[in-house]
Amino acid sequence: MIRNIRVERIAQTPIEQQQIELVERKCIGHPDSIADGIAEAVSRALCRAYLEECGVYLHHNTDQGEIVAGESLPRFGGGKIVRPIYALLTGRATKTFDGINIPADSIAVEAARSYVKSIIPIMNLERDIIVDCRMGTGSTDLRDVFKTCGGSAVMRANDTSFGVGHAPFSETESLVKGVSDYIDEVYRPKNPAIGTDIKVMGLRDGDDITLTLAVAMVDRYLADIGEYVETIARLKETIEGIAPKFTDRKVHIDVNTADDISNGVVFLTVNGTSAEMGDDGSVGRGNRCNGLITPCRPMSMEATSGKNPINHIGKIYNLLSTQLANTCVTEIDGIDEIYIRLLSQIGHPIDQPLVAGVQVIPKAGVELAAIQPAIDAIIDTGLENIGSITEKVIRGDLKTF
Amino acid sequence: MIRNIRVERIAQTPIEQQQIELVERKCIGHPDSIADGIAEAVSRALCRAYLEECGVYLHHNTDQGEIVAGESLPRFGGGKIVRPIYALLTGRATKTFDGINIPADSIAVEAARSYVKSIIPIMNLERDIIVDCRMGTGSTDLRDVFKTCGGSAVMRANDTSFGVGHAPFSETESLVKGVSDYIDEVYRPKNPAIGTDIKVMGLRDGDDITLTLAVAMVDRYLADIGEYVETIARLKETIEGIAPKFTDRKVHIDVNTADDISNGVVFLTVNGTSAEMGDDGSVGRGNRCNGLITPCRPMSMEATSGKNPINHIGKIYNLLSTQLANTCVTEIDGIDEIYIRLLSQIGHPIDQPLVAGVQVIPKAGVELAAIQPAIDAIIDTGLENIGSITEKVIRGDLKTF
Amino acid sequence: MIRNIRVERIAQTPIEQQQIELVERKCIGHPDSIADGIAEAVSRALCRAYLEECGVYLHHNTDQGEIVAGESLPRFGGGKIVRPIYALLTGRATKTFDGINIPADSIAVEAARSYVKSIIPIMNLERDIIVDCRMGTGSTDLRDVFKTCGGSAVMRANDTSFGVGHAPFSETESLVKGVSDYIDEVYRPKNPAIGTDIKVMGLRDGDDITLTLAVAMVDRYLADIGEYVETIARLKETIEGIAPKFTDRKVHIDVNTADDISNGVVFLTVNGTSAEMGDDGSVGRGNRCNGLITPCRPMSMEATSGKNPINHIGKIYNLLSTQLANTCVTEIDGIDEIYIRLLSQIGHPIDQPLVAGVQVIPKAGVELAAIQPAIDAIIDTGLENIGSITEKVIRGDLKTF
Amino acid sequence: MIRNIRVERIAQTPIEQQQIELVERKCIGHPDSIADGIAEAVSRALCRAYLEECGVYLHHNTDQGEIVAGESLPRFGGGKIVRPIYALLTGRATKTFDGINIPADSIAVEAARSYVKSIIPIMNLERDIIVDCRMGTGSTDLRDVFKTCGGSAVMRANDTSFGVGHAPFSETESLVKGVSDYIDEVYRPKNPAIGTDIKVMGLRDGDDITLTLAVAMVDRYLADIGEYVETIARLKETIEGIAPKFTDRKVHIDVNTADDISNGVVFLTVNGTSAEMGDDGSVGRGNRCNGLITPCRPMSMEATSGKNPINHIGKIYNLLSTQLANTCVTEIDGIDEIYIRLLSQIGHPIDQPLVAGVQVIPKAGVELAAIQPAIDAIIDTGLENIGSITEKVIRGDLKTF
Fold it and tell me: What DSSP character marks residue A158?
């Protein structure tokens, strides 16, 4: 069956030529990101358990869950957690299948705790966090849809929903994501005072980019406010140093602008995340699956994290459309910008979206007709191999936030 | 101080001329909407209590919270709830101020229960829902920002964040919103079998619009599957009848397409919401503050519901930008589409955004220069009177989802 | 099969002749009693549902559960609840039987809320209490025992356990219970300022009885501390007036002795129970099934409330032994004191205890041999008709605390 | 001030000469004992923190709390936990004092988890248990009482309450406690298949003692039902071997009598406690502070575990009266049985009970007058040094269950 792929050229001021551009990223330890990460960790752990115990992936959906903030008393040299963070795992999972019991609740609790340990190793899990679980079992109709196609190669959509993706990243997008990655991968390992809860807000106004970072600092690694100020200054400098890798535009860096140093009002934390002291988090409220929040671009409201990677459109189509957009700009010359939207119809095979809508801004002088066949082919092949998304997710090769 | 308002003309294929358009609405009883509505009801109740007891609005933020699905056994003629819905109220609120104790937790629980009763009057609150509360108190720095300007006219931004709004609605947007409103206001009151949990998904493919509705039907008002089928058919017909009010395009209506009538698999519920049987909900995961999810338009990820309406940018700027966009298209001739983005800087007065970015597609033949002063003026005045947003929200004159 | 009934005469100083006697009662609104009452209300509601939906009583055990105190700000004329009481329902219940689903969780929540309303009508259930539920399903082996004898007349013991009862009440016991009943039935209806949470502690030292009452007073019915003092004084006087009905001994009454009137430290509450402001409660921690705590008498540690009345020894044997002791002293002349202990063996029919141990202090001049046959007969008949306990419990004819 | 000590001789059939005697012990891993142990561990951790951070012990009361059973699938060779145990910490604690914040919630969670680990080392705390916390702060009046005497040597009673203790243990009591201790200290270390959740029920009928043990067996250490049967048999034999150390009477041992071996119905668990599969537990529902439940003896209903050891009568007087009774029988010749009851009056110094009531059964030929002065002296000295109870509790030298 031929897939319904619609490619159109749109007249649109390319993002780089628009006056204002906004880009945001909530890094790994931001409360919303913690919620996303836990949701995804639980889903992956369930997938592994289902495969091991039942030989198939079973229905589940853990794309909900709440991080209720604790209370802390940070202090230079090392403060304390007063009231633990409360993490509530919800969603639903298959708990029995074909006579086999799958300990979904225990798996979920363990996966969540283990995930938190992995991203915030300095947290004392015995006293700084409570992981609770109120996971249910799915509603009958959804499970039926799932069972129906248990043995076949192509799953059926769990919902009428859609995914969107775009490529390539703008300079501001690359900068925001690049700075976040640099801190995570290069800078924090050597500078443990930099917490994992960082919000990076990028504003491009014409050719001036302002990067505003709110960085939760870790109290035990800072002797006093002097060291705090110094550490912030060094981070600012470092980011100024790497910014030119991503853009030739003028980049202004602000870090913890809400601080009032003379009054001792600073963004100091015990474990490096504001979840310990007032900021709640929820799945699906932070980054989209490309790692960014981009209000100047089309976005899906669907939480990608925690959804099952077998038949859940809100997850699979967001991941796939993003991947396809990237493949198009990588493999095809002549694309300035590309936006891909995949729309499912509940109960239909997921490799046959109701429509795959593609919007292209070709490079100057490029005719749409010249590149359309290549785009068509990439999308057709991507849908053909849609099962690979599932596998990559379970292996952890695809990030969801 | 002059406000930083940047108006630019963008070359962009107007939405109505794009090939594909997607629009979604989660109606009042959808789990995500229930979460939004509770969050907003709690915030409004707190505002009233603060004003009454302390004479000022105090810091709070209840834009989190989780609806954990229950379990039900719907049956034609009337089924039963097996496990109650579990609603967790979180967020934070000021609980003491100037020696006065504000019973924030009790207020929150009462507001939530009362809200649910108001939107789902058929629900038996004594057995169908558990409303729990784990609300904390805010982190110090945020409250300080708040206290600082307690007496002044203009609040300071709680965060570096932004809001976006657009106008006018496209035909598909008007249709989706219009159908939802029609059911809520006109059709359900006479047809109680139509539950409040409806998801309306609109897809425009060129000049063909497909409206897919997933409607939770209420079992007690349906004698058997025959009446179910009939009721669905009548609803479909009714919508087909009103669609021409919103568009001349061809509109195809699908209702509960996942049903498998011959096998008795239908979307039947006890109280008219899937929250009773498997679907969780979260604040901020559903409609944007214009009542829609519009992945082809710029959107903010911020939850508008539940945030305090005093200084919380994620709420105020989303509401204001939407309102300003509407005012522009109403009062100014010559605008095809307008997008407004307001960006705050933490700690700065909220009537002085870092930038107010405006993108306009003028009507054919209209010069930007001709309409720009009027746009500037509307935005400037809107920011000048930003306090009116707060008042409208507390009075319930502005919807947030 | 002959029942193993062992009657022995014990040489023991009768309670009335002992120097010191202690008797305590926690009235209906004491946190422990609220927990007991909820547990029992849930069990009875489940029994009714099982009978109605399945035709038989099914396994359940709700003799656990916790009342976590809230926070209140009582004030003369009417204060407020700041944080609701949190009531957690636990235990386990049969949720499916023979293809029928029993909505045990919803039943439990409704029964608990309805019970609280019945005993504390002034409580605003929409904001003063949260009723949560984490009820499980029973462990397999217990249910098997139960199923085995589903159709037979005599149940099998769920456990190796025992019950104890004594009769008659001593004067101090009668006084403590009588004062509590008088307040509940006669005095409070006309004096609503007297809360339901009263702890009555009776100490008899020779022929002097001191009755110490801690009475939670209801703020809305008291204009000021003067009225408080007056109301307390009137209550004291009233009790002094009725005490002679129960004893000729000298009775000294103390009410709210911990008050410090001059400093305004009084036992004032919003709803008449300390559960609203700091005192937690648990099932089985308060009164034994005769309504008293009697540390000078043999007692069972088993919670009577909430256990299923079908095969749960901890409930049935405590109720039965108390009833049998009362029957013996009522119907047989010559008994000064009687103590009955029934010991079960798990899996054996409940009408065949391992041993029914009876200790008697005959009246002066009475030979044990003269009354033993009558005692034997009463106990034998009581065991024969043990099923009537079940029925009485379900109808609410037997109090459990 | 002279203390009010009342010693009386009572005519009473000594326990060993009564026909029937019942004694029960819930061992360390029984759900009620787990609850007790957690409550006590939390209280001790708070005491240590208060002393360290504030220099004084502060008000708290954690003698509540609930163990909500999980769900498990035991299997010979090693099964799994399906749903974690849910432990709810409640009660109240001082959280700020003199400007110092004490992280009571975090301390409680950590103490609870650490305690569970210590008694059930085979439990995987990352997936087999959820420790939640809803601890409040105390009601004002109680704390005032406490504050008043913060600096003085002698605390004031928190309540009008009492404690009771007796000595010496009867043979049956010694046997029940001795068997339990033997298993804990000697047998289980070499026989890990014996779980920590053991209920020992002792019935003495004349000179025949029946000891019924319900022992949760640990699945991972048992290959099959054969090994299960064998292990039970060996345990039975072992207990038969040690019983003569405690009594010359005939002792009959029953272990897991509810098993139905041929149908595979056995008491098998994953972690050695029924809390994992259906049995809830509560503080104060199990053993009294002498380690036993003795319905033939006077008992207090007060939970000893978790109460603060500074001024909480329900704890201190139970521990002290038990200790004093033991001292009397150890140091004074001529006592067959002694029962001590200490009764407090709220607000009065705890070393001055309202009455210390002592009941003695002297040995044949011993006059009360001959031993009374020695008894008086022991009790007087014990009350004089009542503060040592506090110290011993905090050091962990006194068991509370």
Answer: S
